[in-house]
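Title: Prediction job returns without error message
Component: structure pipeline
Severity: low
Priority: P3
Assignee: unassigned

Description:
Job completed but the reporter wants confirmation the result is attached to the right record. Sequence as submitted:
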Amino acid sequence: MRLLLVEDERALAAALEDALREEGWVVDHTVDGRDGLRMALLGQYDVVVLDIMLPSMNGYDVLKHMRQRRVWTPVLMLTAKDGDYDQTDAFELGADDYVTKPFSTRVLLARVQALSRRGAPERPVALTVGCLSLDPTTRRVTREGKEIQLTAREYALLHHLMRKAGQVQSKSEILENVWDSDYPGADNVVEVYIGYLRRKIDAPFASKSLETVRGMGYRLNPIEVPAEG
């Protein structure tokens, strides 16, 4: 799951980024309104968290241009400002939610999670690949009816692979979608987490769903429930 955070208070932004990443979100951050608009128009985000008071272009104008360009990504407005616009105006411009500073981080995370579910009606609530199932509403993962416990990063990796089931995903594609686009580390972190995931979703079962495609990347294949008898 990918989120765009447009917030110029750097300390607040850093705290939010940490909290969101702990929940498995990939976060892109900018402090500038025009940059935020460009990223929102070009990127594929599940949610945008958008401050109102921003350099170069305020959040209301960013939102207005997004909706004019038919970008329907759910937007949560984040502000301490009481001024020209109020919450009603924000909703009329196309906002999906509105939080006033100071706020509870847990409440914000819950609202972001709710927006991510609401914002993708074309996707099934639960992802299913053969006998493997992932429910984003509860973050519950099962295979053949048996629940599998995953860390936040393992969950994000599996979520991406399930959304791209049957397609080969290169290390760079996985890094871009599961880690941050500017992740400074080596790409062997992907191999490490693929290994973690294999031990949980494949090793305890008779058949293997997660395939290494030599020289290309990784692919999650549908595995059906084995027939009884």
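Comment from assignee: result matches the submitted record. Residues 120-124 have pLDDT under 50 and may be disordered.
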